[in-house]
Amino acid sequence: MQQQSAGGAAPGDALAGARPAQPMTETRTRSGMFGVRGTGDTSGYGGLRLPGWAPAPAERPFGGWFDEFADELGAALDERSIPRSAVEQVTIDRDELTLYVEPARLHEVARTLRDDPALRFEFCSGVSGVDYSAPDGAPVDRPLHVVYHLLSMTYRRRVRLEVALDIEHPHVASVVDVYPTADWHERETWDMYGVVFDGHPALTRILMPDDWDGHPQRKSYPLGGIPVEYKGAEIPPPDERRAYS
């Protein structure tokens, strides 16, 4: 349910603290690790139980410098005729701020954060992927996420940008022309998660061989069973290995 912020902001204006219509991801309890089932787990994580939890969308006042930042970003977006709906959600957890950005607007938002004099996030320190697909195959809306870590050396502030993508269409614009340091980071995210960064100058594998089939850090990627070329051996998946207890 959408809520009106205290300042009378339009519903869905995440920068004003109004909640979006839906959360970005569902929460669930995670049992075990690596998708292992049964008694053949030799990883030591078979009995692990972690509660499913995700922080709620933030509401005003955010606290600290976050309110000033949100106001400045909103004004910068308005000045560039970028709709505020480009920021789908604002989350603050453990004194860290994350902006969930509409994938089609990521490039514009990133350039705004870099160029606006009141923001000046000049440096992208990393790009990484996350696959929130459910191990049991339950449907998850836009489970493939890409996270961008930005630093303002001018104002000594850090924020995260995050976009959520469909597995069937994992495309988002490259930010290499905005942040050249993202070059190899985007290549690694493509290699491990299969995210296609449209406009990247050379989107090739960086960890796996060029002819490798699949993306190893996706939840759907098989565990083990990969031939070890120099010995001709094969490592079985964890649930097929010998149990020691």
TrEMBL record:
Cite the EC number.
7.1.1.-
Residue ranges of the region described as Disordered:
1-38
Instruction: Outline the extent of the NADH:ubiquinone oxidoreductase 30kDa subunit domain.
Output: 99-225
Q: How does it sit in the membrane?
A: Peripheral membrane protein
What are the protein's UniProt keywords?
Cell membrane, Membrane, NAD, Oxidoreductase, Quinone, Translocase, Transport
Instruction: Indicate the enzyme's highest-level EC class.
Output: translocase
**Keyword Iron recorded:** no
Question: Where does the record place it?
Answer: Cell membrane
Gene name of this polypeptide: nuoC
List the Gene3D superfamilies hit by this protein, alphabetically. NADH:ubiquinone oxidoreductase, 30kDa subunit
Per the record, what are the reactions this protein catalyses? a quinone + NADH + 5 H(+)(in) = a quinol + NAD(+) + 4 H(+)(out)
Which PANTHER family does this chain map to? NADH DEHYDROGENASE [UBIQUINONE] IRON-SULFUR PROTEIN 3, MITOCHONDRIAL (PTHR10884:SF14), NADH DEHYDROGENASE UBIQUINONE IRON-SULFUR PROTEIN 3 (PTHR10884)
Q: What InterPro entries does the annotation carry?
A: NADH_DH_suC, NADH_quin_OxRdtase_su_C/D-like, NADH_UbQ_OxRdtase_30kDa_su
Protein name, as recorded: NADH-quinone oxidoreductase subunit C
Q: Which GO terms describe its molecular function?
A: NADH dehydrogenase (quinone) (non-electrogenic) activity
Q: What is its main location?
A: membrane
Q: Indicate the family of this protein.
A: Belongs to the complex I 30 kDa subunit family.
Where along the chain is composition biased (Low complexity)? 1-21
Q: What HAMAP family does this protein's entry cite? A: NDH1_NuoC
Known role: NDH-1 shuttles electrons from NADH, via FMN and iron-sulfur (Fe-S) centers, to quinones in the respiratory chain. The immediate electron acceptor for the enzyme in this species is believed to be a menaquinone. Couples the redox reaction to proton translocation (for every two electrons transferred, four hydrogen ions are translocated across the cytoplasmic membrane), and thus conserves the redox energy in a proton gradient.
Cite the record's note on assembly: NDH-1 is composed of 14 different subunits. Subunits NuoB, C, D, E, F, and G constitute the peripheral sector of the complex.
